[in-house]
Write a structure and sequence with these properties.
single chain, 198 residues, mainly alpha
Amino acid sequence: MVDYHVLFGVASVLIQLVGFSLYTLSAFREGTKPHPFTWLVFAVIDGTVFVAQLLHGGGPGAWLLGLTTFTGSLLFLLSLWRGEKHIARMDWVCLVTAFVGIGAWQMTGNALYAVVLASLVDAIAKVPTLRKSYVRPHEESLTIWITGMINFSLSIAALSSKSLVTVLFPAEIITTNALLVAIILVRRGQVAEAKEIR
């Protein structure tokens, strides 16, 4: 009999590959401009949480973070070429705060504190993309954020060991991705409405 943890783990990885592929295509075809600061922090934080999940019995539920470390690194490189070029002061503040958070996370000996800090860093890393998306909502694709909500939900189901330490980080990603998607959709509606009024 096939272990359902493995099935959910494989499904989360496949959905991530679809989301990554669609997001990359949208950067070439539809004007999506990934923010380099967001993807740099994602690559670093996902890689570190991936190792933490493996060490705490994450099993197939950790596979997704291994893949997102790789795809996040590729999207960071893509963003240097085709991404957001307008870097605001707030973006720099978020980047520095994120790396201070990563440093604090590395210094703590408590796994739960570490995951709480990692979750805060991940949320802060989304702020530059959120700022850019609020101003120019059509320069951000929804696919990677929606597929992220789906595949991290599956990764939670795939965890061999469910605890606050293994579940908190993917749960934060699901929540903040949903917030980002909602803001992009609302702003797209507002921008379209403003154009109609003109």
